[in-house]
Write a structure and sequence with these properties.
Layout lengths: L1 E3 L12 E5 L13 H4 L3 H4 L1 H19 L5 H21 L4 H9 L9 H10 L4 E8 H10 L8 E6 L31 H7 L4 E6 L16 E7 L6 H10 L2 E4 L4 H8 L3
Parallel strand pairs: 2-3, 2-5, 3-4, 5-6, 6-7
Antiparallel strand pairs: 1-7
Helix pairs in contact: 3-4, 6-10
Length: about 270
């Protein structure tokens, strides 16, 4: 079921709009790996690191999903979670080759209709900004492997794992980690990508968490159509009511997101 909660009257189309979208559980569906798990396939990097990542997920994911926790406490816990995950890659001495092999053998899956959407947007020269608190290496490689990474119309803002000259994971700068509570388009786009969207009057913003709305400034929301994906993981009556107060449009997990957006901008 689709819930429409807005009376915004602006007309979006392929000429005046760009897409600003989250990756994990938005471009991808919930049934497969997320971008963090994808770099830690136990068959490639060992069971120990995968077990440690899973333990961190089980501990911190409920906190991320809980909207009764104060913003300050959630922010603190998200910073700890993401830093500990990043440091696992460093402490287990993962390499560029192992990470790339792990991503290729991962179980990431597109959300319904999204691959076709990305291809259609590229053909119509509609810019796509992927803003993710996940792992940028995973996102880029997954899209390339599925023939829908287009560097002329697409830009990824995420946590990219860096490597030294020998291909070993570098130590992370925790102050630069993007997590679910601090991700924003501001300050992250290079000039070339800014030029591609500066003549676009409107944007479509899509995410699976309420925090995703903050990918744009509050003052910019009057020219933004916000779409929230209420995943099965999050679905209950309380969250549905909350999402309906925050997002212009709320889609349930089973809806065809790609088809819905294509119809919105008539491509």
């Amino acid at each position: 079921m689709i819930h429409i909660n807005t009376d915004k009257e602006f007309k979006i189309n392929k000429e005046n709009t760009y897409l600003l979208i989250d990756f994990d559980k938005t471009i991808t569906c919930c049934e497969g790996d997320d971008s963090w798990a994808a770099v830690a396939n136990p068959k490639i990097v060992g069971k120990e690191i995968k077990n440690d990542i899973d333990k961190l997920y089980e501990k911190y994911r409920p906190i991320e999903m809980d909207y009764n926790i104060s913003k300050q406490e959630k922010l603190k816990q998200m910073e700890i979670w993401y830093s500990e995950c990043m440091n696992l890659y460093y402490n287990y001495k993962l390499t560029k080759n192992k990470i790339e092999e792990s991503i290729k053998s991962s179980n990431i899956k597109f959300r319904k209709g999204v691959k076709e959407l990305l291809i259609s947007l590229h053909k119509q020269n509609v810019p796509v900004i992927i803003l993710s608190a996940g792992i940028g290496n995973t996102i880029e490689q997954f899209l390339k492997d599925n023939d829908c990474y287009f560097d002329d119309t697409m830009y990824i803002i995420s946590n990219f794992i860096e490597f030294d000259k020998k291909g070993n994971v570098k130590k992370f700068d925790n102050s630069k980690i993007i997590h679910s509570l601090n991700k924003t388009i501001n300050g992250h786009l290079p000039n070339e990508s800014k030029k591609k969207i500066e003549n676009k009057k409107y944007k479509i913003l899509v995410g699976d968490l309420i925090e995703d709305i903050k990918m744009v400034d509050k003052d910019d929301l009057n020219k933004t159509l916000t779409i929230g994906i209420l995943t099965k993981e999050m679905e209950n009556e309380e969250n549905l009511r909350l999402y309906n107060t925050k997002f212009d449009i709320v889609l349930k997990d089973e809806e065809n997101l790609g088809e819905f957006i294509r119809e919105l901008i008539e491509i």
